[in-house]
Amino acid sequence: MPELELVIGSKNWSSWSLRPWLLLRELHIPFKETLIPLRRPDTAAMIAPRSPSGWVPVLHVDGQPVWDSLSIAEFIAELDQRAWPEARMARAHARSISAEMHSGFGTLRKLMPMAFAERIQPDAETLAAVAPNVARIDAIWTDCRARYAGDGPFLFGRFSAADAMWAPVVSRFTTYGVVLSPPAEAYRDMMMALPGMLAWAEAARAELEAGHA
């Protein structure tokens, strides 16, 4: 196993950092965590020497960088095949919904940014604006649970990179109290109770209490 260092941003805010962090954690792959606080005057200067793109997360593999959360997930899958479902078409399905999350849902991202440890009541205008995004996400989760429920409680039965990719949305729906269908709500609540998500939440709360987020 190569030496892994994951460079991430503030845990209350950095949705993209949560994805590879949770995937590594749930697969029990050892890694060193380096956190760079976001939204500070020196944030960009601290990230620049660590990340070719100037963004976090970035995974250093024996000192070589791999950046972007989806690219990092694919690299992790090369280390541990459990990162994606075993069956070919389930694996293709998981990659499809992960890519859709990675590239889409701009309205939700903009109007409901990740604030992991906070609880925020959105106004009616915001809820109306994000409703199409919420409906699509609810449909994705409900469809996955209907197809793969016999294999376990996650989107594809057992935990996979797809769950890690959707983890920031799970947190957003919790932060903003978004109403979901029963299957989607059950999935959200199960994900929020994962040991990794609880650990991330504890760190995010500590950032808030220290005035760092």
TrEMBL record:
Residues 4-84 form the GST N-terminal domain. Keywords: Transferase. It comes from the Bacteria. CDD domains: GST_C_3, GST_N_1. InterPro entries: Glutathione-S-Trfase_C_sf, Glutathione_S-Trfase_N, Thioredoxin-like_sf. One of its GO terms (biological process) is glutathione metabolic process. GO terms for molecular function: glutathione transferase activity; maleylacetoacetate isomerase activity. Coiled coil: none annotated. PANTHER family: MALEYLACETOACETATE ISOMERASE (PTHR42673). This is Glutathione S-transferase. It comes from Arboricoccus pini. The lineage of its organism: Bacteria, Pseudomonadati, Pseudomonadota, Alphaproteobacteria, Geminicoccales.
